[in-house]
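step=encode ok
step=design start
structure_in=
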């Protein structure tokens, strides 16, 4: 990729065609982003006035993508969710930005060994988990500190990871995002602006249906089985395999992995598997607990009743969040709310029916047919986060239920960083083809791996 002052050939081609050009860019500054993401989309082919940068800071990884309208460059780092990750945003972000600035991040169009330097982008949007009202000030300070460490002028704009996910999956100005990755929550967008949200409150207070929520309940079910407080479940040998991996320095496991524990081993004082599980859980950050989520969904798919009940609760919780965000009213208590206290073990029976809508103060938004109260139309439902964008038992339940309830197209936002680039492009007065940016991202990522 060229420096920001040389964005590529698209601009000159437009000039030769006599098209209107955006105002001259100032490469040394990052323009502040307006509250509204920008004007309606320009015609296809509208050039970017310079280099833009999008960053997706999640609980397990950070992805930075620089794009100039022609090619992309990508850098990755550890996750930096303040609620569930060990790394700080300033450190994770500074590492990615430094990699991009020195030209180390791969571009799909690079020839092997091609040297590059990267100037400051003219607009940058950082989507960060935990960037709601409670955390935005601190995360903005950390993002600016990382920016200064790289030596770039200007300042990036920090938004929530939910906002960039929606813009990665939908062009529709009005729509609904349902997210389940390390965290979980739902957001309503009206005229491209986030106007209401439900959950996304962190693993201590909510995030129902997230990877951390699934993993923690799966481990609790295994603990209850080992302690004979709960039913037997295939999650138990998988959890002990996870504990063994943690003791060996990693948390990787296959969904059907087994620790080889025989009946009666749980009663052996010098080989109590409960102690191994306790030690492993204590050593994990909340984000690392989410590594057990794939085992929960896989065993649910295979017919394990305990795992099935966990997945059923997760699906109902995610749908409840979607309905709450769509209603747009002030949050109030309702009979369908999650209980404030968790049972020691997963319940042995689940309700057979889910209420169509949990009324708040006697009113329920009309979400059927893609409409909500106050006259707004949901044009698209976007799903984001690894729990909902991969093929698993929970994602299948949620997709079917959303399609039936909202009766609108459902899009998957598997790479939210593309939404951050789109928002940065709008802030700079330009527009991107999201499919083209995604193709560049995938090609650059493949090049880095190969």
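sequence_out=
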């Amino acid at each position: 990729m060229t420096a920001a002052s040389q964005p590529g050939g698209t601009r000159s081609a437009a000039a030769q065609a006599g098209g209107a050009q955006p105002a001259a860019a100032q490469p040394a500054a990052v323009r502040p982003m307006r509250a509204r993401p920008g004007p309606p989309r320009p015609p296809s082919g509208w050039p970017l006035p310079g280099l833009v940068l999008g960053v997706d800071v999640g609980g397990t990884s950070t992805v930075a993508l620089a794009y100039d309208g022609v090619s992309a460059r990508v850098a990755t780092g550890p996750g930096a969710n303040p609620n569930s990750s060990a790394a700080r945003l300033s450190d994770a972000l500074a590492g990615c930005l430094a990699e991009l600035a020195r030209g180390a991040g791969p571009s799909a169009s690079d020839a092997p060994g091609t040297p590059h330097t990267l100037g400051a982008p003219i607009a940058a949007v950082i989507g960060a988990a935990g960037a709601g009202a409670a955390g935005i000030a601190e995360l903005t300070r950390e993002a600016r500190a990382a920016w200064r460490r790289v030596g770039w002028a200007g300042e990036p704009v920090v938004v929530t990871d939910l906002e960039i996910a929606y813009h990665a999956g939908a062009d529709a100005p009005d729509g609904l995002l349902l997210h389940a990755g390390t965290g979980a929550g739902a957001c309503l967008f009206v005229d491209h602006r986030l106007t209401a949200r439900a959950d996304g409150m962190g693993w201590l207070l909510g995030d129902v249906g997230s990877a951390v929520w699934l993993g923690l309940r799966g481990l609790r079910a295994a603990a209850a089985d080992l302690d004979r407080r709960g039913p037997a479940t295939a999650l138990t040998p998988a959890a002990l395999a996870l504990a063994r991996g943690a003791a060996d320095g990693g948390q990787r496991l296959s969904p059907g992995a087994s620790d080889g524990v025989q009946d009666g081993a749980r009663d052996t004082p010098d080989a109590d598997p409960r102690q191994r599980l306790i030690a492993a859980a204590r050593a994990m950050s909340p984000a690392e607990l989410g590594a057990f989520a794939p085992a929960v969904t896989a065993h649910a798919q295979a017919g394990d009743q305990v795992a099935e009940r966990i997945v059923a609760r997760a699906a109902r919780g995610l749908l409840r969040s979607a309905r709450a965000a769509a209603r747009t009213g002030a949050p109030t208590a309702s009979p369908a709310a999650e209980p404030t206290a968790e049972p020691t073990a997963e319940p042995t029976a689940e309700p057979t029916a889910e209420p169509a809508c949990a009324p708040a103060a006697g009113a329920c938004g009309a979400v059927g047919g893609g409409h909500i109260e106050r006259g707004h139309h949901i044009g698209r439902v976007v799903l984001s986060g690894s729990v909902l964008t991969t093929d698993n038992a929970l994602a299948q339940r949620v997709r079917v239920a959303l399609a039936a309830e909202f009766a609108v197209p459902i899009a998957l936002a598997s790479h939210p960083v593309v939404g951050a680039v789109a928002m940065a492009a709008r802030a700079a007065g330009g527009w991107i083809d999201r499919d083209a940016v995604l193709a560049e991202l995938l090609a650059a990522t493949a090049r880095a791996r190969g």
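step=design ok
step=annotate ok -> Residues 1-40, 105-116, 251-270, 329-375 have pLDDT under 50 and may be disordered.
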